[in-house]
Amino acid sequence: QMCIRDRSLAALRAETERRFAELAEAQRRTEEQVRQLAEVVHRLTERMSRIEGRLRGDEMETEYRTLRRRYRHLVREPHILSAEEREALLEAAEARGVIGPEEADALEVADVIVRGHRLEGEGETYLVVEVSAIVHTEDVERAAERAAVLRKVFPEAEVRAVVAGSDIHPLAARMARDRGVWWLKESRPFPPSEIPIPS
C-alpha cells in the first residue's frame, strides 16, 4: 500500500509540476504579448502625435498665410506675398546676381513672406516667417537663414526673421534670443530679448 501511495503522490506531484510549468509558460507568453501590444500602442501614439502636429502646423500655416492682421503689431499695412509675387521677386534678384539659385530655392519655400511699413518712421519692413505648432530650433535656424538671404535682396529695408507658433521649445527660445529672431504667438509678437524661456 505504501508503494502504491508513494507512486500516487509522485504522479500527483509530477502532474502538479507539469501544470505549474504550463501556467508559467502561458504567463510568459501573455506577458510577451502584452509587451508587444504596448510597443504597438506606443508606436501608434507617436505616429498619431506626429500626424496631429503636422495637421496643426498645416492649419496654422494656412492661418498665417491668409490672416494679415496677425502681423499688424510688427508692420503697418501688412501684405502677404503671393506665390507669384515671391517668384517674380526671386527671379529678379537672381537676374541681378544678388542671390544664387540655392538661396532663391530657400526663400521660395519659406512659409510666409510679409511686406509692410515700419511701425515707426519711414521705410519698408519685410518679415520672413516660419510657422510651426511648436517652434523648434530648426524653425529658428530656417527663419534666421532665410531672413539673411532676403536682406541681400532688400539691403535698404528692415528684414526681420520671425517664428510663429502657439508654443516654443526652451532650446528654440534661447536660440531665437541669440539669433535675433522674433516669436509671434498668434497676434502677439515677442522681440528676441523678451522671448520667455519655458521651464
Q: Could you walk me through the main structural features you see in this protein, from its secondary elements to its overall organization?
A:
By secondary structure, the chain is an alpha/beta fold. The protein contains five helices and eight strands. The protein has helices spanning 2-66, 83-96, 101-108, 137-153, 170-179; strands at 76-80, 112-117, 124-131, 134-135, 158-164, 167-168, 182-185, 188-190. A hairpin with a 6-residue loop joins strand 2 and strand 3 (124-131). 27% of the residues are buried.
Furnish the topology, listing elements before pairings.
Layout: H1 2-66, E1 76-80, H2 83-96, H3 101-108, E2 112-117, E3 124-131, E4 134-135, H4 137-153, E5 158-164, E6 167-168, H5 170-179, E7 182-185, E8 188-190
Parallel strand pairs: 3-5, 4-6, 5-7
Antiparallel strand pairs: 1-2, 2-3, 7-8
- Count the strands? 8
Intertermini distance: 79 Å
Low-confidence stretches: none
Q: Structural class, from helix and strand content?
A: alpha/beta
Helix content: 55-70%
Number of helices: 5
Please sum up the structure shown.
The protein is an alpha/beta fold. The chain contains five helices and eight strands, in the order αβααβββαββαββ.
